[in-house]
Amino acid sequence: MRSCMALIFPGLEDFGITPLEANACGRPVIAFKGGGALDTIVPGLNGMFFEEQTVDSLSEVLLSFSRKRWNAGRIQALASQFSEQRFMEEMYSLVQRLENAEIKKNPEQLRQEIAASYRI
């Protein structure tokens, strides 16, 4: 995967780990605009979307992809937001917060903070 120009991800999956693996190698992803790709791809930073699962839609994006320069380091940085280390640190933090009874004080605020921490 490290030697590819990009990963083409035409499927519709709930999450899709393969695009993140390509990003972890510093490679951009050209993905169908749906499913889990919407949570991991930031257009212009670590990939691009095509609107329909058709040859014409993909071809249009491939033409614009070939004119863009990609920053491998930035792509890897975005992928690192989904790392095992970050997951473990945030889970530990969540458990600590729950033990400190923060959830009893304001569960909606805690829920919003947790949700916000997973946005790119």
Structural Rg: 17 Å
Number of strands: 3
What coarse outline follows from CA principal-axis ratios? elongated
Order of H and E elements: EHEHEHHHHH
CATH topology label of the largest domain: Rossmann fold
- Regions with little confidence, pLDDT below 50 for 5+ residues: none
Fraction of residues in helix: 40-55%
Superfamily (CATH H level) name of the largest domain: Glycogen Phosphorylase B
Average pLDDT: 89
Give the class from helix and strand content and strand pairing.
mainly alpha
Spatially, the strands of the biggest sheet line up as: 1-2-3
Helix and strand topology:
Blueprint: E1 7-9, H1 17-24, E2 29-32, H2 37-40, E3 47-50, H3 55-65, H4 72-80, H5 84-99, H6 102-105, H7 107-116
Parallel strand pairs: 1-2, 2-3
What structural keywords apply?
120 residues, mainly alpha, Rossmann fold, 2 domains, 3-stranded parallel β-sheet, 7 helices, 3 strands, 52% helix, elongated
